Amino acid sequence: MSYYIAPRFLDKLAVHITKNFLNLPGVRVPLILGIHGRKGEGKTFQCELAFEKMGIEVTLISGGELESPDAGDPARLIRLRYRETAELIKVRGKMCVLMINDLDAGAGRFDEGTQYTVNTQLVNATLMNIADNPTDVQLPGSYDSNPIRRVPIIVTGNDFSTLYAPLIRDGRMEKFYWEPSRDDKVGIVGGIFAEDGLSQREIEQLVDTFPKQSIDFFSALRSRIYDIQIRDFIHKVGFERISLRVVNSLEAPPEFKKPDFSLSNLIESGSFVLAEQQRVENSQLVDEYNRLNRGRGSQAAPPPEAPVIQPVNNSSHKREVSNTHLSLETQEQIRQILSQGHKITFEHVDARRFRTGSWQSCGTLHIDAESDAISTLEACLVDYDGEYVRMVGIDPKGKRRVVETIIQRPNGKN
To answer: pTM of the predicted model, to two decimals?
Structure first.
């Protein structure tokens, strides 16, 4: 296939890599180029095409290799691969780079539920150290005073705000947000369907039919077109014999004729893929399960007004009822946050930790329904009576907090 390389992407990558191999007096060049953006937009694949076009050799590290049961192994791996790449530059006499895919997945922290391990700290610290001293990268337990070649580092990810902030500062990492334009999408999708006989106008119409879909949607769409032939092949061979026919068979591999890649068929198949996406987004089963679990917990707990189990006097009972009754102002704040397309979560902290800002989640994250938000807040106010409770509005697109409002204080006033 004649794959398309976006000119803007190629220029950014080529300039960063070349600049790191030049000796520019008085200029501090960032060692790391961070390519970030939405999932499925072809960041890694565009890098591979650019490397092939420029004749660059790549040493790869996956984000999945940045965690280990043995503390220090991922940091040592980064140093080892960096030194190996520096040696490749020396031996091959050509440009080589170190590339880390999905850095945020391996070293980022997305919320309170993400464990921050020793390896996470060491990976961030190691990358910072290499960016500051790119020609003096040592392995643990040994020291080599001879400087090594400078190796440009390319990292990809979806959300670099989850990384340790000093790592992504401008002196160490140059950021490049990759969001293909319509022309880029038309070019890339045209490369995907290059052998299928679609005209330029049909490619443009296909892209315009699914304007919000990422690049991998169209790649998956092309794969789906073969499903009918593969299903017929399975039924012809039989479910019981398909394994013997496909794996380690003495017969020739099955051949499939070119399927129908007409625009109407592609749009129809794309609509099915889009419907599956929407079912996943609309199901929100995790929130339903959390609500059920919270409901079971509240049913199992003894009712606070039952005098046999937990006697209370009238004054304390009245205070508890007032704490679980939301004011009209609070309900209006919830409506305003949700009406802007944001989501809501709730956090609590006791008076001692309030000074250090060590807030903890009340349980359910990213609530997008008013009734769920009200019921969750009421349960939180009961569970953490005598503590600070605050409401947090979250922008799901920007993955940032837009509102933080304290709902309850230890004196019992909401």
So the answer is: 0.66
